[in-house]
Design brief:
Blueprint lengths: L7 H15 L12 E6 L10 H19 L3 E3 L9 H10 L3 H18 L15 H16 L3 E11 L4 E3 L4 E2 L2 E2 L7 E10 L5 H6 L9 H11 L1 E13 L4 E10 L10 E5 L3 H6 L6 H11 L13 E9 L7 E7 L10 E4 L5 H10 L7 E3 L22 E3 L10 H15 L2 E7 L4 E2 L1 E2 L9 E4 L3 E4 L21 H4 L5 E3 L6 E4 L3 E2 L1 H4 L3 H4 L11 H7 L4 E5 L5 H15 L12 E4 L2 E8 L4 E2 L4 E4 L2 E4 L5 E9 L10 H8 L1 H9 L8 E2 L2 H24 L13 H22 L3 H20 L5 H18 L4 H10 L16 H4 L3 E8 L2 E9 L4 H9 L2 H7 L4 E7 L3 E6 L1
Parallel strand pairs: 1-2, 1-24, 10-12, 24-25, 26-31, 32-35
Antiparallel strand pairs: 3-4, 3-7, 5-6, 7-17, 8-9, 8-11, 8-16, 10-13, 11-12, 14-15, 18-23, 19-20, 19-22, 21-22, 26-27, 26-30, 28-29, 29-30, 32-33, 34-35
Helix pairs in contact: 1-23, 2-18, 3-4, 17-18, 18-19, 19-21, 19-22, 20-21, 20-22, 21-22, 22-23
This protein binds one RNA strand of 86 nucleotides through helix 7, strand 9, strand 13, helix 10 and strand 31.
RNA sequence: GCCUCUGUGGCGGAAUGGUAGACGCGGCAGACUCAAAAUCUGUUGCUCGCAAGGGCGUGGGGGUUCGAGUCCCUCCAGGGGCACCA
C-alpha cells in the first residue's frame, strides 16, 4: 500500500496540460457523429470566480465528460458576458478604463476556471465586448429594423437629476438614486424597443413543447407573458350637463359579465384624455405629478392608497341608459396595459371596492352563490371573488340573471359584438423590450440621426460602430454624449451632417445569442448556418433560476427574430434546461455586528472566535454567499489547499443539484479525505488485483462474483444517475463501490477470480469517477498501469448477466406491517411464495391464530398476509 | 393578495404505491500509537426490554388502498415568482 499522500497541486496542472496538448476538448464539426452541446450560463467578468461558478461549471463539465465518454461529439464552450455597469463604476471609482478593467478581469478568471480542470473548448472563447462579437449584434439589429422588429417610442425612465443619468430600477432605492441619494424623477425619453410582444402568443404556446425545462420556469414565463381573454368596448361620454362629448371611452375588461355592477370608470393618469383635460381642470396637473412620483417610491412595501381625481365626465351605461358612471383619473390604472382605462365593479374587485368606499360610490353585487336571495346579498370590505369550484350565478343583472359567469361572459360578448359596441380581445402582460441604455460600456446602437432623413441605420459596410476609447468619467452622464467628436458623423442617406445614436444596448442583448455564436465564433457573419444546424440547439443549458424569465425569454425571442432575418434556423435555442441551486454558507459576526469571513473564524469549543483577535463570534443564518455578509469562501483558496477535484466533488455531493447547497468546512474535508482514500484504494488494487488486460477466469463465484455484481450494478446506476443529472446519487454509488472494494481488499489469499474482480472493479471505479474528479482519475489510471488517458476511455457498459440475480429478498408483511423477510428464487409463482410465507414462524406469531383472509403477493418484491 | 415549490434521524439527504432512513457529515466504541493526528474496524431514528422481541416514527388532521414519505382533501410552517395587468 502506498503511504504517499495524493498531492493535487502537483498532479492537477500536469493533467490539465496533458489535455491541452492533446486538444482533447476542441470540438470539430463532424456530421458522422451525434453531437451534444452542453452550455453553462457564461459569467460576468467580475474578476474572481465564486462558488456559484464552481458549482455551475462543474455540473456542466461532468455532463460534457460523461457524454464524451459515451461517444458524443461534445461542444462545451466558454465566454464572457463582458459589457455592463460594474466596469463603469470601476472607472468612476478607481479611474481604470472599463476596457482594461474588463480584459484584466477576464484574464484572471480564465486562469481560475482553468485551474478547475474544466473540459472546455477554449479555442471558441470570446467576450461580448470584443468588437468582433458586437459588430454582428449591430448587423443583426439593422436586419431587425428592416424586418419590422424594432420600434422607437417614448418611454419613462428613472432620471437622477444630480448625476444627470438614467438609472436602472435596481439602482433606485426608496425613490432615491443609489449613488447621489437624490430624489429620482420620471422622464420621458425616446428609446429603442424590440417588439417581443409580437411573439407573446407564440412564446407562450411554445412553452408546452419545452418538456425538459423545469415546470417552475415554464410557469414563471407563462405568468410573465400573462395572457388574458377579455373584451374591449367603448362608453359614450357626456359632461356635467348631460351633453354628449365627442370622445368615446374605450376600456378593457376580463369581467364583462359584471357590467351591471359597474359604478365608475377610471383612467390612467397618463391616459391621452387625462392629458388633454389637464389644462382645463384645476388640480389635475398636481394629481398627475403625485401619481408619477409614486411610481419610484417605496410603494411596493406598503400598497399605495387608491386615489382618484374626478374628471367631470360621465359614461353612459351600455345596457342601462338611465345610469351614468362618474369618470376618474386614478392612480391604480396602468397606461401600459389594455386601454389604460377600466370600468370599476366594486363588488367583485378589491381595488375597485377600496376606491368605491373611499369616494362613496355604489357597490352593486352582480355575482352571488347559487340560491342566494339577491336582496340579501351584500359586499362588505372584501370583494366577492368567485372561486373556480364555486357555484355562482349572476344577480341584479337584467338579461344575465341566473347565468353562470362563463355564460354571462359569452352573452355579453355576443350582445356587444352584434351591436357593434365592442369586441373580444386577448391581452398580454408582456411589454416590448426596451433596449436603450444611456451608458458607455455597452454595444453602440448602430443608427444615425439625421435632421433631414430622420433615423437611418448604419450601413453594414460601416460596421462595427466601435466605442471610442478616449472617454472620461469625471463628470456625470453618458461619456458617449460628452465625447467631443464621436457622435458627429454624416448621414449615410443624404451625406449631410448627422449625429450618432449615443445609447448602447441592454446587455441582455449580448447574452441573447452568444450560444449561437459559439457554433462558429470566427465566422465573418453572425452565425454560420451550417455549423449552427449541426450544433444547435443547446442540448443541456445550465444556470441559475434568477435568469428564469428575462434572459431565457429574450433568448427564445432572439432565436425567432434571428430565424426571421435568416441568421438562424430554429425557434427554441435550449432543448433542455437545468437550474441549479445557490451555494449558501453560515454567517458570522462580531459582538459589534460586523460581518466576518469564514476564513477568519476559528472554532472554540461549542462556539467560534476570531482567528486573529480572539473576539467572540456569533453565528447567524445560513444565507446565499454574498460579499456584503462576508459569508464567502474563495474557490482559489480551496483549490490551493485541497485541489480542484475536492472542490468539484464537494459541490456535487450530498445535495440534489437543483437545491441550495451549504458549504461547510467539514464537508470539504470529507471530500478531501475521500480523495486520499481513493488514492490508497487504487494503489492497493494495483498491488493485489490482476494485471491490466487479464481475461476473466472461469468459474468466478462467491465474494468475487458479488464484487463483480456490485461493480456492474454501480455502472448501471451511475449511468442512469448522470443521464438524469442526479449527481449526488451518482456520488453515493461511487462511495458504495469504494466500500465494496475496501471490504474485498481486507481479505488475504485472493484467488484468481477475486484478483480479476478487483481489477475490473478498480478500473470501473476510476472511469466512473472521472467526470467528477478528472485529475485524480487520470493519476489513478496511471497507477493502474495504463499509458492511455481516461478522457479517451469509453464509458463502461454494465453486463446484464451480472446486474440481475437469481435470488431475491422478499419482505413479508402481516396486515401491512413488516414481520420478516425471506430469500426466494427470482420469479417464483405467487402460490409458492404464499406457501413459503405462511410457513414462517414470525408470520404465524403475528397472525396469532386469526384466519388468513388473503395474501397479496407482488412478484419478487413483497408478500402481505391479510387476516380477518 | 395571487401563483408555485418544499417539509423524512443531530445534519445534508436516499427511497418505480411495496423492507423508510441508501450514501455522506457528525457522534459513540474499539484497533494502531508513548501520545495525538491520520487510518482501519464496529456502531448509530426514537423508545420499552437482560435478551428474544415489541411499540412509535417521513410538519398536523382526515381519506383512498392489502399496503402511503409517495396518491386525494384540509390545515400549519418555510422558500421562490408576480405584485395594482382590470
Amino acid at each position: 500500500m502506498s503511504t504517499e499522500r495524493y498531492n493535487p497541486r502537483d498532479t492537477e496542472p500536469r493533467w490539465q496540460q496533458a489535455w491541452t496538448e492533446k486538444r482533447a476538448f476542441e470540438a470539430r464539426h463532424d456530421p458522422s457523429r451525434p453531437k451534444y452541446y452542453v452550455l453553462e450560463m457564461f459569467p460576468y467578468p467580475s474578476g474572481r470566480i465564486h462558488m456559484g461558478h464552481v458549482r455551475n461549471y462543474t455540473m456542466g463539465d461532468v455532463l460534457a465528460r460523461y457524454r464524451r465518454a459515451l461517444g458524443y461529439n461534445v461542444l462545451h464552450p466558454m465566454g464572457w458576458d463582458a459589457f455592463g455597469m460594474p466596469a463603469e463604476n470601476a472607472a468612476i471609482e478607481r479611474g481604470v478604463h472599463p476596457k482594461s478593467w474588463t480584459y484584466d478581469n477576464i484574464a484572471a478568471m480564465r486562469g481560475q476556471l482553468k485551474s478547475l480542470g474544466l473540459s472546455l473548448d477554449w479555442s471558441r472563447e470570446f467576450a461580448t465586448c470584443d468588437p468582433s462579437y458586437y459588430r454582428h449584434e449591430q448587423e443583426m439589429f439593422v436586419d431587425f429594423i428592416k424586418a419590422g422588429l424594432v420600434e422607437r417610442k417614448v418611454s419613462m425612465v428613472n432620471w437622477d437629476p444630480v448625476d444627470q443619468t438614467v438609472l436602472a430600477n435596481e439602482q433606485v432605492i426608496d425613490g432615491r438614486g443609489w449613488r447621489s441619494g437624490a430624489l429620482v424623477e420620471k422622464r420621458e425619453l425616446a428609446q429603442w424597443f424590440l417588439k417581443i410582444s409580437d411573439y407573446s402568443e407564440e412564446l407562450l404556446t411554445a412553452l408546452d413543447d419545452l418538456k425538459t425545462w423545469p415546470e417552475k420556469v415554464r410557469l414563471m414565463q407563462a405568468n410573465w407573458i400573462g395572457r388574458s381573454e377579455g373584451m374591449r368596448f367603448a362608453f359614450t361620454l357626456e359632461d356635467d350637463n348631460g351633453k354628449q362629448v365627442g370622445d368615446k371611452l374605450t376600456v378593457y375588461t376580463t369581467r364583462h359579465d359584471t357590467i351591471f355592477g359597474a359604478s365608475f370608470c377610471a383612467l390612467s393618469a397618463d391616459h391621452p384624455l387625462v392629458r388633454e383635460l389637464e389644462p382645463a381642470l384645476p388640480g389635475l396637473a398636481e394629481f398627475r405629478r403625485e401619481v408619477a412620483a409614486l411610481g419610484t417610491s417605496e410603494e411596493s412595501i406598503e400598497r399605495a392608497e387608491k386615489k382618484g381625481f374626478p374628471l367631470k365626465l360621465y359614461a353612459r351605461h351600455p345596457f342601462r341608459p338611465e345610469v351614468r358612471l362618474p369618470v376618474y383619473a386614478a392612480n391604480f390604472v396602468l397606461m401600459g396595459y389594455g386601454e389604460g382605462a377600466i370600468f370599476g365593479c366594486p363588488a367583485h374587485d378589491q381595488r375597485d371596492l377600496d376606491f368605491a368606499r373611499k369616494y362613496g360610490l355604489p357597490v352593486i353585487p352582480v355575482v352571488a352563490p347559487k340560491g342566494t336571495d339577491p336582496s340579501q346579498f351584500a359586499v362588505g370590505d372584501e370583494a366577492f371573488l368567485e372561486k373556480e369550484d364555486d357555484q355562482t350565478v349572476l344577480i341584479n343583472s337584467d338579461f344575465l340573471d341566473g347565468m353562470t359567469v362563463p355564460e354571462a361572459k359569452e352573452a355579453i360578448a355576443r350582445r356587444m359584438e352584434t351591436a357593434g359596441m365592442g369586441e373580444r380581445k386577448v391581452n398580454f402582460r408582456l411589454r416590448d423590450w426596451g433596449v436603450s441604455r444611456q451608458r458607455y460600456w455597452g454595444c453602440p446602437i448602430p443608427v444615425i440621426h439625421c435632421g433631414k432623413c430622420g433615423v437611418v441605420p448604419v450601413p453594414k459596410k460601416d460596421l462595427p460602430v466601435t466605442l471610442p476609447e478616449d472617454v472620461t468619467f469625471d463628470r456625470p452622464g453618458n461619456p458617449l454624449l460628452h465625447h467631443p467628436t464621436w457622435k458627429d458623423t454624416t448621414c449615410p442617406s443624404c451625406g449631410g451632417k448627422a449625429r450618432r445614436e449615443t445609447d448602447t444596448f441592454d446587455t441582455f442583448i449580448d447574452s441573447s445569442w452568444y450560444f449561437a455564436r459559439f457554433c462558429s465564433p470566427q465566422a465573418p457573419i453572425p452565425v454560420d448556418r451550417a455549423e449552427a444546424k449541426y450544433w444547435m440547439p443547446v442540448d443541456q443549458y445550465i444556470g441559475g433560476v434568477e435568469h428564469a424569465i428575462l434572459h431565457l425569454l429574450y433568448s427564445r425571442f432572439y432565436a425567432r427574430a434571428m430565424t426571421l432575418t435568416g441568421h438562424l434556423d430554429l425557434k427554441e435555442p435550449f432543448a433542455s434546461l437545468f437550474t441549479q441551486g445557490m451555494v449558501v454558507h453560515e454567517t458570522f459576526r462580531t459582538a459589534a455586528g460586523e460581518w466576518v469571513l469564514p476564513a477568519e473564524v476559528a472554532r472554540a469549543g461549542e462556539g467560534y472566535v476570531h482567528a486573529r483577535t480572539g473576539e467572540k463570534i456569533t453565528t447567524g443564518g445560513i444565507e446565499k454567499m454574498s460579499k456584503s455578509k462576508k459569508n464567502v469562501v474563495d474557490p482559489e483558496a480551496i483549490i490551493e489547499r485541497y485541489g480542484a477535484d475536492t472542490a468539484r466533488w464537494f459541490v456535487l455531493s450530498d445535495t440534489p443539484p437543483e437545491r441550495d447547497i451549504e458549504w461547510t468546512e467539514n464537508g470539504v474535508e470529507g471530500a478531501f479525505r475521500f480523495v486520499q482514500r481513493v488514492w490508497r484504494l487504487v494503489a492497493d488494487i494495483q498491488q493485489k488485483g490482476a494485471s491490466p488486460g487479464t481475461k476473466a477466469p472461469a468459474g468466478i463465484a462467491g465474494d468475487a462474483l458479488e464484487l463483480r455484481r456490485t461493480t456492474h450494478l454501480a455502472v448501471q446506476a451511475m449511468t442512469e444517475d448522470l443521464g438524469a443529472l442526479r449527481f449526488n446519487r451518482g456520488i453515493a454509488r461511487i462511495y458504495e463501490l469504494a466500500n465494496a472494494l475496501q471490504a474485498a481488499l481486507q481479505k488475504n489469499d485472493l484467488d484468481d477470480g477475486m484478483r480479476f474482480a478487483l481489477r475490473e472493479a478498480g478500473e470501473a471505479f476510476v472511469v466512473l469517477m472521472a467526470p467528477m474528479m478528472p485529475h485524480l482519475a487520470e493519476e489513478c489510471w496511471q497507477v493502474l498501469g495504463h499509458k492511455t488517458l481516461v478522457v479517451d476511455r469509453p464509458w463502461p457498459k454494465a453486463d446484464p448477466a451480472l446486474t440481475v440475480s437469481d435470488e431475491v429478498t422478499i419482505a413479508v408483511q402481516v396486515n401491512g406491517k413488516r414481520r420478516d423477510e425471506i430469500r426466494l428464487p427470482k420469479g417464483l409463482p405467487n402460490a409458492k411464495v404464499e406457501a413459503a410465507v405462511l410457513a414462517l414462524d414470525n408470520v404465524k406469531r403475528a397472525l396469532d391464530g386469526k384466519p388468513v383472509r388473503k395474501v397479496v403477493v407482488v412478484m419478487d418484491r413483497i408478500a402481505n398476509v391479510v387476516s380477518g
